[in-house]
Amino acid sequence: MNKIIISDASTLILLQKIALLDKLVKNFEFIISPEIYGEAVVKGKKIKSEDSYSIESKIDSGIIKVKKIKDGKRVNQIIDEFNLEKGETEAIVLFLQENADILAIDDHKAINVCKIYKIPFITALTFVITALDAKVIMKNEAKEMVRNLGIYGRYKDELIYKALNYLGEKK
């Protein structure tokens, strides 16, 4: 059985933007919450974001599943305690609810909450490196994806340079 990945909206969108999501859904089961659907698809379609239509297509075909949160109280508790946004909080609660394997998340505050709860997480940038190491993508693809994350993501320049250096590109 494929590993289960719960994703927040920003990571899902970034993976779609850099053309890595199509490769990942072949090896992992992706699950999102209704809030994340709203952020990644509904809001994206309002601004005619191509990524939102691609993500919606994956949901419509069952490649990405949308599951409801069963414990709304826990969502509110985590929002109150850690001052997180609802999407990131639902991703954390859905991870715990589904006993998932990995949480795909790029939000710094949410990553800190993952550390507190000992939730294994991965960022879009780490996905690129991991996909290369697993031979899912080629080095030239990985370099392009990292460069695109430098454009689309909210990564510090030093992280992008470190990843490019790992890929053999000197800056």
Describe this structure in words.
Helix content is 61%, strand content 11%. The chain has helices spanning 9-17, 21-24, 34-46, 50-60, 72-82, 86-98, 108-117, 124-133, 139-152, 157-166, and strands at residues 3-7, 28-32, 64-66, 102-104, 121-122. Strands 3-2-1-4-5 form a five-stranded parallel β-sheet. Helix 8 (124-133) packs antiparallel against helix 9. It is globular and about 50 Å long.
List keywords for this structure.
single chain, 171 residues, alpha/beta, five-stranded parallel β-sheet, globular
Topology (elements, then pairings):
Blueprint: E1 3-7, H1 9-17, H2 21-24, E2 28-32, H3 34-46, H4 50-60, E3 64-66, H5 72-82, H6 86-98, E4 102-104, H7 108-117, E5 121-122, H8 124-133, H9 139-152, H10 157-166
Parallel strand pairs: 1-2, 1-4, 2-3, 4-5
- Please state the structural category: alpha/beta
Number of strands: 5
Please give the oligomerization state of what you see.
Answer: single chain
Number of helices: 10
Give a short summary of the structure:
It contains 10 helices and 5 strands; from the N terminus they run βααβααβααβαβααα. The chain has 171 residues and is an alpha/beta fold. Strand 4, helix 7 (108-117) and strand 5 (121-122) form a beta-alpha-beta unit.
